Every structure is written in structure tokens, then in C-alpha cells.
Amino acid sequence: MKFEELGLNAQMLESISYMGYQNATPIQELAIPEILAGNDLIACAQTGTGKTAAFVLPIINQLTQHKHGGTSTLIIAPTRELAIQIEQQIQGFTYFTDIQSLSVYGGTDGNDWEIQKKALTSGADIIVATPGKLISHLNMGYVKFDQIQFLILDEADRMLDIGFHDDILKIITFLPKNRQTLMFSATMPEKIRQLAKRILNNPVHLSTEISKPADGVLQAAYLTYNTQKIPLIKSLIDNKPNLKSILIFSSTKLKVNDIVRGLRSKDFLIEGISSNLEQDAREEVLLRFRSKKTRVLVATDVLSRGIDIKAIDLVINFDVPNDAEDYVHRVGRTARADETGVALTLVNEEDMFKFKRIEDFLGEQIMKIPLPPQLGEAPQWNPKRQEGRPGEKGKFRGKKFGGKKK
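Above: the chain sequence. Below: its structure as C-alpha cells.
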């Protein structure tokens, strides 16, 4: 569907054209008319489907027609990276308008605090904030949110996972009750539904498919012993100049540096990123990866949601994610929108049951690719779970899959 069919005004259509957008995604087709109609909304859509533009476009559309003094829109996001990303999109779409926006997040110096304070008191039209830093400002007593018309919670499930439930409820006590509230989430667990009941007014429920990766993702897996993982990745990326942007996910922060050291090469730059890094350092690493100065980025799940890095050629799960939703978020970093990409998962003996559970959730078997012969024999596919002894939840006993002793 063309954006011209969604009820947006001429000024917004010019901005959309300037940003290079052509056709609306399914979640944009569903959400934009409902938001323009003034309805509260709870929307569920998988990562990489254009959720940010789905709420940013109609909100800016309304502000260009009925702009009032003070801050009219508050967008809450779970992480600093996502807040920055949202505000960057807002700046692009408001290039031809006089609408002002600012992001509010932690990890900044005193000068940034003063800039944030000025925006929160004098009234930037749109504030994008992380919950913790926003509450720090709210507790100082100078924030002016009496003109808020629109409240948007982005990646709401992620915010609850991080532990921001009470912070969200506290922030809402500072807002007018008469407002339009929009909740966007990649998943819709019961805790999200309960929160929606408390803060939304007769919301419209929208959903697109969330349980499967985008059609453009070619998925495959390698059965491998842990000692074969680094040599396997080297064989996949060495002498492959067409793979210019590679993202590797580790399930733990502790493994990130080990993977970086194992893959280090004189031919390209590889870096790691996790919550252990300071915010400024994380932004610098992301900037180098976005600009293709860094070819390989090793990350924890801090990057699996809400970070829009275009044209990632290959995603590798060094470990099997804990559940299917985490898998979808990880592989969703490639093949965003209408692009294509490859997602590979390295499955050791203990993770076979977990990977089979992901396949069952997705309703499909993911192709298993044989290891390169030079890496030796691989484990045999045997996803039957071996239960530990009583009191040993999550452990395995006896022999490992593939016949090797622990």
C-alpha cells in the first residue's frame, strides 16, 4: 500500500519521499489510520517491520496540523541506543517542519543534563526517553508534561523484561489522563496485556506475524562441538569479501571477548559490544559497525532488539538462544524490510533440544549444513533431552551427544 492511501497530509508525504520510503509495511498500514483516528493502540509486530515509522509518522502528521505549546509527545524506549535511533528517525521526518525533538537518556555529562533539562522545561515538541533517566528529571520537579497528548511505549515487552514496570507506572502519574496512548511490542505476554489494561483506554488491538523471521532470511544451522565453533566461523568469513557486515551473537557477556580474540584477523576489524562497555564506547563501536569500518561485531542480546543497522549480510548465533522469540529477534537483524540475508546457528550437543524447541515453535525444520571436512566429525543430530538427576535442573548426565564423555 502507498503512503498516499493512509490519510497522511502533503507535508508528511514530502518528508516520507525525502527519507526514501515507498510502500508502507503491514504494521504501518494497520497502525497509521488507527492512530490518526485518535484511538489508543496495542500493536504487536516482529522486529524489522517498521514499527518506529508506524507511530512516528501519524504523530508528526498531527503535530504539523495542530501544534501546541510545550511538549506534546512522550516516547519511552528501553535502551539508550533505541532512544537515539527513534529520535534520528524523527529528525529525518521533521526536516521540513519546525517540530523540535530531543532524546533523554543516561550515561551523559553535565552539559547534556542541562540540555535535557531545558528541553523538558521549555518544551521540545517530542521527547524520547529511557525510563530511568526521565524519572531522575521528574524527581527534580521542573518537568512540564501537562500538555502531553501522545504517549508511546516502544518495545514494551523489553522494558518489562529489564524491570521498568514500576518506573512506567510512576511516569504515567505525571501525565494528563486525557491523552492518546500507544503501546508497541514484539511479543504479547500476559504481563503486557495486564499493563495495557491499566494504562490504555479501550485500545484497538493490532498484530502481524511475530513468530517467524522475515521471508528474506535464509536460515541454516551447523551441528558442532564447542571447540569447532571458532574454526568454523573463520572458514565461513575468511576470503569472503562479499560478506561486508557480520553480526555474531553470544548468549553471555563473558564469551564476547573470547570470540573476538579467537577471530582476530590482520585483514579486517572485529569488535565486541555488551553492557560491560560504557555508553559512549558502545555508541562508538556501533558507529564503526554501521559505517562498515568494523566488519565483524560480536554482541550480546543488547543488540537483538530495536537497533536499526542496515545491510547486515550475515548473522551468526554462536550459541542457541534461550527461546524462539530471542531467536527471531536475533535473526531479524538481517533481511530487514525488503532486504535479504543469512542467519546461521551453531548447535552443540547440549543445545540440540533447545534448538528443536525453536524449530517446533517456528513450525519448520531449519536446514542442517555439514561441517567442512577439515574440521573433523560433527555431533549427530539427537535432540532428545537428557534429564539430570533430582536437584540438578538443567544438567546432563552420562555421555554427551556424539558419544564423548563430559
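The first strand starts at residue 41 and ends at 44.
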